[in-house]
Amino acid sequence: MGNAATYKNNLTLLNQKLEQLKRNTNQQLSKHSTTQIAVFSNTFEYFINSNHRNKQSVCLAQ
């Protein structure tokens, strides 16, 4: 097996692990789908959006 085949195989394995992690994360988060949250920074918004959750409120301190 050449380097290209090894890298391609590693990429396939990594993608499978990432998909499994995504499924596990969504399963865990689904238990809290109606839980309201408040955060004090908009940096959490990426997590909320990428996991298809509804942002309830954001409190920005200056």
Description:
By secondary structure, the chain is mainly α. The protein has one domain (3-58). Helices cover 55% and strands 6% of the residues. The chain has two helices and two strands; from the N terminus they run αβαβ. Strands 1-2 form a two-stranded parallel ribbon. This is Zinc ABC transporter, periplasmic-binding protein ZnuA. It comes from hydrothermal vent metagenome. Keywords: Coiled coil.
Keywords:
62 residues, 2 helices, Zinc ABC transporter, periplasmic-binding protein ZnuA, coiled coil
Q: How does the SSE layout of this entry go?
A:
Layout (H helix, E strand, L loop, with lengths): L2 H28 L7 E2 L5 H6 L6 E2 L4
Parallel strand pairs: 1-2
- How many strands in all? 2
How are the strands of the largest sheet arranged? 1-2
Q: Give the distance, in angstroms, between the N- and C-terminal Cα atoms.
A: 56 Å
**Secondary-structure element pattern, one letter each:** HEHE
Mean pLDDT: 82
In DSSP terms (H or I, runs of 4 or more residues), the helix count works out at 2
Poorly predicted runs: none
Share of helical residues: 40-55%
Q: Shape, please?
A: elongated
How much of the sequence is in beta strands? 5-15%
Q: From the alpha carbons, calculate the radius of gyration and give it in angstroms.
A: 17 Å
Largest sheet: 2 strands, parallel
Coiled coil: 4-35
Keywords: Coiled coil
Protein name: Zinc ABC transporter, periplasmic-binding protein ZnuA
Compose a concise summary of this entry:
This is Zinc ABC transporter, periplasmic-binding protein ZnuA. This protein is mainly alpha-helical and 62 residues long.
